[in-house]
């Protein structure tokens, strides 16, 4: 089975590493001009004949990057099976569509407004109560295209800085933690759910994901499972889907956004779960049985951002698993991640702190359950 | 770090899959004309200019196949670091040298004789007591170049069928089981040992490896650790070394042969150990700290030989991990392996039987500890 992947970054690289053992071969179609997968057959898309070459090589198509021209994915869908479908991309590319879908399925979200001018932004900020966060409805990624407004008077500046014709304005949520639920749905509609992860972001970039959470109420996991199952079924989705949520002080979950792909907050599954999110995505899109999503033991994923750190020192930590992306260093760039495993959460936190000390730009890892 | 690998089969493929996450890149030099790695940059060696190209690309060299021209490896050693050294290849290519090394280090072996004619073969068979096994001193692999003599009168036929100027003749050992010990030695002389595996062979081809063994006396593991450490230190060895042994009824270990590389009987470590043999080999040769060699839980590796079997049915077994080599089917060919994990040995054996039923040519898995 030759699998075509739209996008050619580290997510595609890790898909390929999970797929070689299934005898899959990989052809990547990069649309950014900056492929970094460093594995398989990488093609850079600039015109139609690249697309034809790509399609000649592949039996089915998936993607590791949702900021793709929807028309391109729809055109591919006419010629090859595409999992997940272009519909998932279309919705995930537009925060307004995404929020409407959440609303339709009864998945709670933070209060929000759609605005199309600085005046509307100011009014929405007033209505929701500052601070608010304003986000362009399209093309946001890792904190780009966003602004925090601490006062309605900042609306003109914020409007100008985001520079987009339509924004979603969201009330700030007094959340205890950011969490994510990752699930996978097979071609026959079978679904498997990973244990939820607690995620620590700094400046909109994920820094740590920890799963399973020691203090997670089983009913909260079941609520999240229900939300993501509704999304999967509504979209007749095939593959891995990620839903990021806020958990409030009273335990409620509010959907933040979803990603129609394997996700950074699921990298812990590479070493910490029986079956990784990458393998399960590939199993799903090929119509193979889904693998067990259970955690083997408490696991924390530590992102390596901007600078590599000392690989030897990281590898000297017991049960540390380094996953480098073979990219050059650049501020803010995701270069690698480390998965740390330990039999107890207390031991795990010790390792996380030890690992963070080895990474020049790592913020302090402080999880919500440490406060209790 | 660009790593050059001599040989380009499934062992090289799995080395590469373990090495991408360390940001290694791989260039393979195949000397057989039939590379199957299907990953990295594969070059077929036919003349000197291929070797020059290969060396231009790589920072250090290792191998996944020891049946290489020693002179070639020695020539490479003049220009690039080679781990393990050519000395390990030289000895492992010659059963007479290998036995002499075992003798010198006090590692017990089955009684043996070296013979250089049919007459000497007949005499050795008489002396050791039939049945005996005769093996060419060089080029044997997976049961090729061997003959069992049930009577000294078979010496002429056996000599002719093996067709080699020097043979090792070994007394049959009344063994309870075949086992192997895999260890890894770093550049600084640090050593880590994997739990021993019990191996089931049929017609000289490995079919099952199970580790850890439920009934293994700790002192037996320590004895094996001592033997392999003696070999590693004597050869100033860097990387993974495998020693295959017989365990006799009274618990004694007798060395059968060694392999200067990652080994089929260590494939269980890919899913069943904290650090796989492949990753540890790469850590060792790059001077990185060795990873934890502990087993996560009882694991059995099932080889897929000749025919693929039903991948979907295999993947439906809980905690089954399929590793295909993306090769075409051919009788006797190693095509894939499945690692099965279970919390207890009883559950593991159930899975092994279930898996064997899905493989057209799998013999019955029957481990020594099932008899007790």
TrEMBL record, chains A, B:
Protein known as: N5-carboxyaminoimidazole ribonucleotide synthase
Species of origin reads Halomonas chromatireducens
* SUBUNIT field: Homodimer.
Recorded superkingdom: Bacteria
Q: Which gene encodes it?
A: purK
**What NCBIfam families is this protein classified in?**
PRK06019.1-5, purK
Q: Which reaction does it catalyse?
A: 5-amino-1-(5-phospho-beta-D-ribosyl)imidazole + hydrogencarbonate + ATP = 5-carboxyamino-1-(5-phospho-D-ribosyl)imidazole + ADP + phosphate + 2 H(+)
According to the UniProt entry, what is the EC number of this protein? 6.3.4.18
- GO terms assigned for molecular function: 5-(carboxyamino)imidazole ribonucleotide synthase activity; ATP binding; metal ion binding; phosphoribosylaminoimidazole carboxylase activity
**Lineage, uppermost ranks:** Bacteria, Pseudomonadati, Pseudomonadota, Gammaproteobacteria, Oceanospirillales
**Xref: HAMAP family:** PurK
The protein's matches in PANTHER family, at most eight in alphabetical order, are given as: PHOSPHORIBOSYLAMINOIMIDAZOLE CARBOXYLASE, PURINE BIOSYNTHESIS PROTEIN 6/7, PUR6/7
Q: What does this protein do?
A: Catalyzes the ATP-dependent conversion of 5-aminoimidazole ribonucleotide (AIR) and HCO(3)- to N5-carboxyaminoimidazole ribonucleotide (N5-CAIR).
InterPro entries for this protein = ATP-grasp (IPR011761), ATP-grasp_carboxylate-amine (IPR003135), ATP_grasp_subdomain_1 (IPR013815), PreATP-grasp_dom_sf (IPR016185), PurK (IPR005875), PurK_C (IPR040686), PurT/PurK_preATP-grasp (IPR054350), Rudment_hybrid_motif (IPR011054)
Q: What class of enzyme is it?
A: ligase
Q: Which GO terms describe its cellular component?
A: cytosol
